[in-house]
Amino acid sequence: MLKVLLPVDGSENSKKAVATFAAMLDWYKEKPELHLLSVQYPLDGNVSSFINQADIKQYHQDEGLKCLQNTRDFLDQSGIPYQYHITVGDPAEMIVRFAAEKHYDQIVMGPRGKGGIQGLLLGSVTNKVMQLSSIPVLLIK
Questions:
Q1: pTM for this one?
Q2: Using an 8 Å Cβ cutoff, are 23 and 126 in contact?
């Protein structure tokens, strides 16, 4: 079965990409196994000096679930099975690393998310994923 990774950042573009991809699932011979991924940015500075690791981990988990909530609600209402994952780090690097380590067959994402600096044609995260990934990347408008 084809394993597909859908990075989700909670943005409108991300939600649109997932909805469009869901409508395209019939294009596949066999329904792919969908995995959502939320990548949380690490906390800045010396935060870990003042807050214990368990609280930081819980914070990232809570923020990741917030980013995934609308997409999970949509997929649940559509009856589309999925799994979700939350990780911490540089979004593009973590998407590529996670996809490679878990042996995904395809990464599906929108051309823009909610990153602060966007490239001329593509979002900076999307552009970096395309440059770093050896796994096929499908861009959904």
A1: 0.88
A2: no
Assign domain 3-139 to its CATH superfamily.
HUPs (3.40.50.620)
Instruction: Measure the CA–CA gap between 65 and 85, rounded to whole angstroms.
Output: 9
In whole angstroms, give the CA distance from residue 125 to residue 30: 29
| pLDDT 10s digits, 55-99 | 889 999 999 999 999 999 999 999 999 999 999 999 999 999 999
- In eight-state DSSP terms, residue 41 is P
Q: In whole angstroms, what is the distance from residue 56 CA to residue 20 CA?
A: 34
d(CA 13, CA 10): 8
Domain boundaries, the chain: 3-139
Residue-wise pLDDT tens digits, 15-57: 999 999 999 999 989 999 999 999 999 887 776 677 888 888 9
CA distance 92 to 120: 17
